[in-house]
Amino acid sequence: MSQTNDDAGMPIAITLEPGTYFRCTCGKSNNLPFCDGAHRTGD
């Protein structure tokens, strides 16, 4: 189990399947808390 924070900064627990995941730190992802590459759009 992994832990991350919601929009209010409160921790949430999520269960992940084995694999590689990238956590969004820019806030532009449509798949929070995971990165979907939205930071690359140049906005």
Q: Indicate the structural class.
A: mainly beta
Radius of gyration: 11 Å
The proportion of strand residues reads 15-25%
Which outline best applies? flat
pLDDT under 50 segments (min length 5)?
none
Number of strands: 2
Rounded to the nearest angstrom, the distance between the terminal CA atoms is 33 Å
For the record, the count of structural domains works out to 1
Helix percentage: under 10%
Query: In order across it, which strands form the biggest sheet?
Result: 1-2
What can be said about the biggest beta sheet?
A: 2 strands, antiparallel
- Please trace the helix and strand order, writing H or E for each element: EE
Summarize model confidence as the mean pLDDT. Answer: 82
What's the number of helices?
0
Question: Could you walk me through the main structural features you see in this protein, from its secondary elements to its overall organization?
Answer:
The chain has no helices and 2 strands. With 43 residues, the chain is an all-beta fold. It has one domain. The chain has a two-stranded antiparallel sheet with strand order 1-2. Strand 1 and strand 2 form a beta hairpin. The protein starts with a strand and ends in a 29-residue tail after the last strand.
